[in-house]
Amino acid sequence: MIELVIFDCDGVLIDSEPIGVEVDKVALAALGLPMGEQEIVERFVGLSHRAKTAALEQLLGRSLPADWWEEYRPLHTRLTEERLAPVEGITAVLAQLGLPDCVASNSSHRWLRRGLGLTGLYERFAGRIFSGAEDVARGKPAPDLFLHAARTLGADPARCVVIEDSPHGLAAANAAGIPAFAYTGGVNPATRLTGPGRVLFDDMRKLPELLAAHPGPAAA
Questions:
Q1: CA–CA dist 65, 62 (Å, integer)
Q2: What is the DSSP letter of 192?
Q3: What is the phi/psi pair of residue 39, to 5°?
Q4: Which residues of the chain have pLDDT under 50?
Q5: Is 4 helix (H, G, I), strand (E, B) or coil?
Q6: Terminal-to-terminal C-alpha distance of the chain
Q7: 0.85 exceeded by the pTM?
Q8: Which of 49, 86, 166, 214 has the most CB atoms around it within 10 Å of its CB?
């Protein structure tokens, strides 16, 4: 019944979000917006760089230079090279999935190539990687990215499923009319991911069984 499994990247395929939060904490303090990790998660995790910049500008009451993030890129690069790994259990899940799949993330193609490459997953998805920062006018929480991925790969959105770990991504799935599986094993707690049309799970190794039990569009 499932024509396409659409995976988010950060926090679903690669365990990059704790690194991003750590760098954001340094960057925000330098900008005059000191925040704790949980506030950073609630405000920014899952947003595209463009959307994050817009949110920061609103909080600051001023514009940021287009390259404001470049000062913090070396720190992000160092931490990524030291710590980045696949999300626990995902490599085995992908090996046994047996369904068409793709990646649809708010991250840039530059980061998707790097993050998936460092964790050995890039070739697994090459040619089926979509960026909400670059491929559509509106990233998540708008539905555009998921609908674009389904359309490009010839899948009926009603017969797709989304694997997400952020409220923004889950809102995008809801807006697109695509059932979502919400992974609660990352930085976002289950209380932020609960909602209609969603199945919550805390261990990526449970995903094949959950997909096999998916009732299909008529019952969704």
A1: 10
A2: G
A3: -65, -40
A4: 218-220
A5: strand
A6: 12
A7: yes
A8: 166
